[in-house]
Structure formats: structure tokens, C-alpha cells
Amino acid sequence: MHVVIVGGGFAGINLAKELTNETNIQVTLIDKNNYNFFPPLIYQVATAYLEPSSISYPYRKFFAGKKNLTFRLGEVLSIDQSENKVILDNGTLNYDQLVFASGAETSFFGMENVQKNAIPMKTLNDAIEMRNKLLQNMEKAVLTKDIRERRKLLTVVVAGGGPTGVEVSGMLSEMRNGILLKEYPELGTTASNLYLVDGGSSLLSPMSEASQKDTLDALTKMGVVVKLNTRVTDYVDDVVHFASGETIATKNLIWAAGVSAKQFEGIAPESYGRGRRMATDAYNRVNNTTNIYAIGDTSIMTADENFPNGHPQVAQTAIQQGKNLAHNFVALLKKQPLQAFKYNDKGSMAIIGKNKAVVDLPKPKWHFKGFFAWLVWLFIHLISLITYRNRLKTFYNWMVAYFAKDQSYRMIIRPERDRK
Ligand SMILES: Cc1cc2nc3c(=O)[nH]c(=O)nc-3n(C[C@H](O)[C@H](O)[C@H](O)COP(=O)(O)OP(=O)(O)OC[C@H]3O[C@@H](n4cnc5c(N)ncnc54)[C@H](O)[C@@H]3O)c2cc1C
Hints:
420 residues, alpha/beta, FAD/NAD(P)-binding domain, five-stranded parallel beta sheet, 33% helix
């Protein structure tokens, strides 16, 4: 059996890992990047806390020596179901079973100017772009004598009050308080406003009310101006426009406000569900297909009775679906009954800043915050990294940053031809 997996994120890599000892199954893992990365920590790369290699790892190295697995660098564009064929930007591949584990991409809700001018927060490339842009704008702010221009360069608006928006705002606030005053004396006391805006009525909307309130209080104390019920409608000429008519002048709009899945030519429109996610049965098989599966962020399953509206688009859903599907492919070969997917909710958490985090556990229902929650957050994220090398590097970087009270990876590194 030849299983082709599109995407080596949490879902795809866990599926591939579980299948590497199955000699009757040949696996091809396709990804448009040659490395796996850990999205929950990209904001720490974006804010110069971690270097990119701490949270990423090359697929070929990870699977070296695994005889039944081949890695293929390429972007899947479409599929041909009648021929069981995947069409990539650099060739084609045949499959017996095809698995979409292609995740989601940033959604700008159709706002072209926002898409053109804002900084997205989805990939490692986005994180490096954000780091470069913020650091370059700080240097430009030093040079300009125009106080309004300087304010625009230093003001940051983060759109999206989910975990990413909260975490990036907290980190930027610490960066502002710890670094700006110390290392940019030329800027004097120029106000560098930091806004976190969200169209909804609370931050961290899927979390408990206690977590939402604690987060709002903590960010406000850290000097972040939180604006709820505030929906971005446009971003043009360095001005963010809101539905209320209000505006904020800034050269830094960070977009952490939404994702949607990508549609692939060759999959019928009726096979898609909410958020353009591929709708599947309880075994992650895409509706109206016989040998195509979707797992993780790109899929939506309503057959799990505890999650009739679909599972949350989080790492645990992707990991658990990847492992369950691996089990089912082996069962399929052995002609054994398949196992329906049941999500095991392990809780949710968000970090706000140094010694500050919130955690919600489902069983027993428990909310806690502060230093202990922060330690739990650090521990869970550390052990979730893909290899010991990444865990050690990240742990070392965190220790240095914690004791030195500094984010030291503040190098503006970009190709020479991008220099303006
Ligand atoms: C900034 C950020 C912070 C987050 N923080 C948390 C958190 O703290 N906790 C949590 O549980 N979840 C968090 N999430 C959500 C979590 O990362 C996702 O739910 C999870 O990554 C989904 O896994 P996946 O395998 O479905 O997709 P992904 O991990 O996104 O992997 C998709 C893979 O597919 C590849 N790919 C995509 N399209 C193609 C194509 N056409 N051809 C070839 N390859 C392709 C991509 O390169 C990628 O490697 C966060 C997400 C982001 C963006």
C-alpha cells in the first residue's frame, strides 16, 4: 500500500512516524518546506527570543534510515481522483491512499489592503519577516526627526485576541519595557503604543471566563491597550481602520486574526465543510471519496458526539488524528475493523509574559494562573518539541533570556537584494 501524505505538520508527521515500522506500507511525505516547525512558538522567533532552528527540524534528517519513507519537497496543487494522482509544482505522484494534512493558511477575510500591508503570523517565514520589520522600523524611528512618523514606526497593532495575539502582545510589551529604553536612548520618551484588538467581546474566546479576565487584567497592567468589539476593516497608507470609524496610525499591523483551510482542485465542492475544511466521516475519510483522508486543521469532522460542530483547530487534534489514522491504515491492511476518532481534550493554555500564564484543565475542571501556570506552559511546550536537540536549544535560550532579562536574537538578517 502506498500512502501519500500532504503536509508534515503535527498531523502529517505523527501519521508518518507511526507508519515507519510498517513494512507493508510505503509512505511518501510531501511538504512545501524541507523542515517541520512548531507553530506555537513562532511568535518567540518573531520577537527575537528564539532562533528559528530551535523550533524547526529538516524532514530528511528526522526520517533518515527509515526504509519505507520517502520525503518529497514540493507544493501540491491539485489531484486527479480518476487516476489516483497528485499534481505538484514539480511533478506528479501516484497513491493508493492519499492524506491531506496540509493545515490552514492565514485568512484576511477578503481585505486586500490588509493582506498586502499587514504582517501575518502563521509560518516561520512570517516570523522572520516580522522580526526584521519591527527591528528595521525601530532603527528608522531613531533616524527620523518627525515625531509623528516616529510614533507610527514605534506603534504596533496586533489584530486577533486568540493565544497568538495575546502571546505576541505580551512579548512585545516586555521587549518595549526591557529593550527600548535601555538600548535606544535616541528615542527618549517617545510613546510607543501597543494595541491588541479583537472583533469579539473577549480575549481567548474558547477558554474559561476566569482565563479571559486574568489575561485582560495582566495585559492591561503590562501597558497593552486592549480594544474588544473592534473589527479591522482596512489598512491603507499606514492607517488601520476599524468598523467603528476609529483609526490608528501605525507601520506595524500584526495579523493573528484568522485562518482558513486551502481548497485543492480535484476535490469536489460538496466535500468541503465550514471554513473550507474538508468534511470527513468518523475515520477521517473525506466525504464523497473512497481513498482520500483529511486530518488536522484542514479537516472538519462532526461525527464525534462530544464535538458536533467539529474539533478545535489545535495541535492535539492534529496529533491524535494522525495517530488514529495510522492505526486504521494498519487495520485496513489486516482487514480488521477501523477505529472511529474520539478527541481527548487535554485542556488549553496561554502565556502572557514572564511568570504569567493561564491554564484551563477539562478533567477535573480547573483554572489556574501565575507562576505555576507559567511553569506548566514552559514544560508542556518544551516536551512537545520534535527532537531532544530542539528541546535543549530552546531550554538554553529560555534560561539565558530569563536571567539576562533580554531577547538577544535581534539581528536583521535578510538577502542583500531586499535591502532598501
Ligand atoms: C502562530 C500559531 C500559534 C499556535 N499556537 C498553538 C498552541 O499554543 N497550542 C495549540 O494546540 N495549537 C496552536 N496553534 C495551532 C496549531 O499549530 C495547529 O492546530 C496545528 O499546527 C495543526 O496541525 P496540522 O498538521 O493540521 O497543520 P500544520 O501544522 O499547519 O502543518 C501543515 C503542513 O502542510 C504543509 N503544506 C501546506 N500546504 C501544502 C501543499 N499544498 N503542499 C505541500 N505541503 C503543504 C505545510 O508546509 C505544513 O508543514 C497555533 C497556530 C499558529 C499559526
